[in-house]
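User: Predict the structure for this protein chain, please.
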Amino acid sequence: MSLNEEAIAEKLAELEPAWAGRSNLFSKEVRAKDAKAIRAHLKDALPAARGDAAEALGQLRDFSSVPELKRLMTDPDPQVRRSTAIALASLGDEQLAKEFVKALLDGSAKVVAGAATALGLAGYQPAVPYLLKAYRTEHPRVAAAIATALGQLKDRQAVPWLVTAMKTGLSPVEAAAALGELNDASATRPLCDALAHELPALRAAAARSLGRLAQAGSIDFVLKDQAVTALHRLTKDTDERVRFCAALALAGFGDPVGRKHLTQLLET
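Assistant: Here is the predicted structure, written as structure tokens:
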């Protein structure tokens, strides 16, 4: 799909800010893989810049920055220390990653949600079984953070848990979004079913995920026509988020009508 990815991301953020979150200050440098420019901000006067620079270097897997990041672990700002720990965990620091795993057992929902978020951002694959156990919670913030982390870690063993969370859990939208990241055809049917859900945000998230599966070649071939037909119906949905995500999904299927709809929606 050659449509402007930045324009699509901006439109999604406009329609549903919760899907976007706060973008990293150095997103452009990350896309350009300019680690040198990012490293210069590890000594920035602004804590937000130091923290974002640390996370960005973790995303780039810039191992040459490890000595500087370790020094930043004593930063006076707690958020900078947390961002640095996430970066170091993503760069293979087992001790820090295991500390985040331990925090999944904490009695505070805020701590558990933060640990799940950190593990997802760090890409720490061994955490998946612990996240699945921690998912058994009645706290929506924790459930949402864990669902998002499971999507980021892209481990297919999470599919049954995410399907259950989408159908009966406290984080159906986050679970639906995560299913689109796992490239597993078995997610096709539950996502198709969610297209008819009464919650607009869930219909939109399910549509987005079906489009991602289609782009990855992971859609269930038997259900492909059913999915496309349902997505065409959703291009006339009463909710703008749903209409946009349906058009985006159809473009992922290579549907020319969907691409036309998406182009028109991006221009409005």
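The mean pLDDT is 89.
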